[in-house]
Write a structure and sequence with these properties.
alpha+beta; Trna Endonuclease, Chain: A, domain 1; six-stranded mixed sheet; 2 helices; 26% helix; Na(+)-translocating NADH-quinone reductase subunit F
Length: 119
Amino acid sequence: MQALTEQELHNLAMNYVGKKLQGMGYEFLAINSQLKRHPQFVLYKKGEPTIFVLVKATENLQNPNAYDTVWVETFKAHAKEQNAKVWYAGVGIANAESLELPVFKDQPYYIAFDDFLQI
């Protein structure tokens, strides 16, 4: 069995969040799935301001929305310059059989995602 790489876990989180955003009626102006490149999604919905979505895959199922405050505040300042809102999507991903094991390709896993944090 092969464990998922950090990029593969990030892509899994991106796919999950992307489907949720589509279900909420948002259009994607831009998508960036590279690790450590932000935002991952730039959203559009008629009559609403632009929204930048930051996606972070984490092993923390209990509190997937924990984030680096300094980093997010820096990004928030950038978004303000663009008249955009910032949403944070922390996505907890873990092996379904044991939290001690990594997530393996083609094996069951859990996803913990409560909702978007509007920052």
